[in-house]
Structure formats: C-alpha cells, structure tokens
Amino acid sequence: KALVETLLPDYYSSTMSGVITDLEVLSELVRLKLPEVHQKVSSMGLPWALVATKWFICLYVDVLPIETVLRIWDCLFYEGSKILFRVAFTMIASHREALSNCEDFTALAECFKGIARDSFTIHCHHFMKSIFKVPGTFKSSTIERLRTEQLQKREVKKKKE
Questions:
Q1: Can you tell me the distance from the alpha carbon of 56 to that of 2, in angstroms, rounded to the nearest whole number?
Q2: SS (H, E, C) the chain
Q3: 127 vs 134: CA distance, rounded Å
Q4: Do 73 and 59 form a contact (C-beta atoms < 8 A)?
Q5: Which residues does the chain have with pLDDT short of 70?
Q6: What is the C-alpha separation between 144 and 112, in angstroms, rounded?
Q7: Which domains does the chain possess?
Q8: Surface-to-core class of residue 126, CB atoms within 10 Å of its CB (0-12 exposed, 13-18 middle, 19+ buried)
Q9: pLDDT tens by residue, 92-122
C-alpha cells in the first residue's frame, strides 16, 4: 500500500496518470541535462512512453539484473521515487553518444532496448555508485515541481480539446 499510494501514486490507476507524468518529467530532465539526446529523440519522433514505461511500471524488474533491481528498491523505500529518475537518467547518459549517433527511428529504438543489457548495468556495485554520481543533484523538490508543471500542461491541453 505504501508503495502504490505514497511512493508511486496513480502509477497503477486506470489512467496511469502518475507514470505518464513521470515519463514527461524524465523527458524534461533529459532536455535540461542531455539536450543532444532529447533533440535526437524528439526529432525522430520516439515517444518517451515507448522508451521508459516498462522501466517505471515494472520498477526495473525484467529490465536490469535482479541484484541491481533489489538495490534500486532499497533506495526507492529510502529515497523515494526520484531513484527511478536517477536510474533512467544514468542509463541514458551512459549511452548518450550512441543515442545521439542513431540515424533513424529503428536504430534509436534498438539502442534504447540495448541500454539495460550492457556491461555497465550488469555490474551492480559500479552501476549503483554511478546513479548517485552521473545525474548530479536530483532534488525531490525539483522532481515535484516538474511533476506539477507537467500535470498543469496536461490540464491546459485537456481544456483546449
């Protein structure tokens, strides 16, 4: 109950608005910190939902090695949901060059699929150190502010429709 209602509200609701919001937040974090990757993903028309929904919904189960997943879950209960962004951002940042060099939609989608299967993510201890180093500061207040902004943008868009 604590996980679903407190740490990940509306992730598993009928609208999945929590996970949709967090995918938009991830997109914004990538835009701010890895603009070349964001530009590539945007220009190719690859939806962030296609890239990261499984990462967030499954909390990295069936994405990363189980040892790593369990360590991420420890951090989730200690640090909160921002750990999901740290993990996603670190996986993306560690492949920024390959992602930026993709020539088409298919290559970009395949590159994202391979992100979780390389040696970087397999070495749990090194990967876990990296998720606290690579992204730099990820304040909970920043994540919450971005969530609020994304929710407001969706509300405005809904009213226009």
A1: 16
A2: CHHHHHHCCCCCCCCCHHHHHHHHHHHHHHHHHCHHHHHHHHHHCCCHHHHHHHHHHCCCCCCCCHHHHHHHHHHHHHHCCHHHHHHHHHHHHCCHHHHHCCCCHHHHHHHHHHHHHCHHHHCHHHHHHHHHHCCCCCCHHHHHHHHHHHHHHHHHHHHHC
A3: 10
A4: yes
A5: none
A6: 26
A7: 2-160 (1.10.472.80)
A8: exposed
A9: 999 999 999 999 999 999 999 999 888 888 8
Residues, the chain: 161
Interatomic CA distance for residues 149 and 27, integer angstroms: 13
Distance from the Cα of residue 132 to its chain's centroid: 14
Would you say 68 and 127 are in contact if contact means Cβ atoms under 8 Å apart?
Answer: yes
In this prediction, residue 160 carries a pLDDT of 83
Long-range (24+ apart) CB contacts under 8 A made by 34-41 are 34/89, 34/92, 34/93, 34/96, 36/96, 36/100, 37/92, 37/93, 37/96, 37/99, 37/100, 40/99, 40/100, 40/102, 40/108, 41/99, 41/108
